[in-house]
Amino acid sequence: MKNLIIDATDCTPSIYFDAQEHLLEIRGTSYPENTAAFYAPVFSWLDEYFANIEEGEITVNVEIVYFNSGSSKALLEFFDLLDDAAFRGMGVTVNWIYEQDDEDMREYGEEFVEDFRRIGFHFVKKIK
């Protein structure tokens, strides 16, 4: 399976999904004009990925500095897929990376923790 690599723009995050290393990374800002269109290839790739793995450990690095409500829904869908993988026995670790002075972004991560208890969340404070 090919990796998924999407470069960041001013309003979309970089996506780096490595199927062989079981590494999924989303970094940057996320407020695309058409959220569904931007995330469609992401979810298509994830559907294929999760259909072809049965065991192992998945590491997810999320370092988003800003996201809009449409992107929030996409993140919920993303974490829901990860939660399903954890339910099937995969080990899923999410590193929620945030700037040291951005407590709002940490709180967003904490809200995801409340909804997805099967996923191991780690909060990583990024020091400038």
The number of E-state strands comes to 6
The topology string of helices and strands comes to: EEEHEHEHE
Distance between the termini: 36 Å
Strands across the major sheet, in which order? Answer: 1-2-3-4-5-6
The first-level CATH class is given as Alpha Beta
Strand content: 25-35%
Major β-sheet profile: 6 strands, mixed
- Give average pLDDT, whole number: 95
- Assign the structural class, choosing from mainly alpha, mainly beta, alpha/beta, alpha+beta, or little secondary structure: alpha/beta
Give the C-alpha Rg.
14 Å
Give the overall silhouette.
globular
Fraction of residues in H or I helices: 25-40%
Uncertain runs with pLDDT below 50, 5 residues or more? none
Count of alpha and pi helical runs: 3
CATH architecture: 2-Layer Sandwich
Number of domains: 1
General description of the model:
The protein has one domain (4-126): Transcription Regulator spoIIAA (2-Layer Sandwich), CATH 3.30.750. The chain has a six-stranded mixed sheet with strand order 1-2-3-4-5-6, covered by helices on one side. The protein starts with a strand and ends with a strand. α1 packs parallel to α2 (69-87). It has helices at 35-51, 69-87, 103-115; strands at 4-6, 14-18, 23-30, 57-67, 91-99, 120-126. A hairpin with a 7-residue loop joins β1 and β2 (14-18). It is built from three helices and six strands; from the N terminus they run βββαβαβαβ. With 128 residues, the chain is of the alpha/beta class.
